[in-house]
Write a structure and sequence with these properties.
alpha/beta; 5-stranded parallel beta sheet; 16% strand; globular
């Protein structure tokens, strides 16, 4: 249970993690049951507040999955930016495409989905106004490399929104767990 469910196969390697997400992609949103009001408050509003001075911001959503962040933002009338959703799992991106297809054309066309890992982003440096990576760092083979890449593609003064598991769930990621202080210190070392 710990190996396959709690840590979602991370100790079996990247291929196993991608495979597990691919086989559950069709029911992922149902499993997670994100609350729309909470998501808007905790994710959409802080991103929009950070980007309020940008007329048409460009945002990278690393490990976008089923387009949780792109769908949230593109459903906000005030958000006029573009979003690149990046994920290694092709079937998760297929579900993301289905979700984004429900948006009006003028919103849907502002999202692009790319199948790619986070440890070697095929993007020029200082390209994005914001980078988002939620509930995913523990699953990357090297979260520090991924974070360095996110920092590299972020414009100076840009906005980073990321998260890590905490508490008992976080500690079950043996060898990958970081205390809040350690994680914050690493982000400071990256220039945040």
């Amino acid at each position: 249970y710990w190996l396959l469910v709690t840590t979602e196969g991370v100790y079996l390697g990247r291929r196993a993690v991608v495979w597990m997400y691919d086989i559950t992609a069709h029911k992922y949103d149902g499993i997670r049951q994100f609350d729309a009001v909470d998501e808007r408050q905790a994710i959409a509003r802080p991103i929009m507040a950070a980007l309020k001075d940008q007329a048409r911001p460009l945002l990278l959503d690393v490990a976008t999955g089923t387009a949780r962040v792109p769908a949230l933002l593109l459903n906000e009338a005030a958000f006029q930016g573009q979003i690149v959703g990046l994920d290694a799992a092709g079937k998760m991106l297929a579900q993301a495409q289905v979700k984004l297809a429900l948006l009006p054309d003028n919103r849907r066309e502002r999202a692009m989905l790319v199948q790619q890992t986070a440890d070697g982003l095929p993007v020029a440096s200082a390209r994005f106004d914001a980078v988002c990576c939620l509930e995913a760092l523990e699953f990357f083979p090297d979260d520090r490399t991924a974070l360095r890449e996110m920092a590299r593609v972020l414009k100076p003064g840009g906005f980073l929104m990321t998260s890590r598991r905490i508490g008992l769930e976080g500690r079950l990621f043996f060898g990958r767990y970081q205390t809040r202080a350690d994680f914050e210190a690493y982000l400071v070392d990256l220039g945040f």
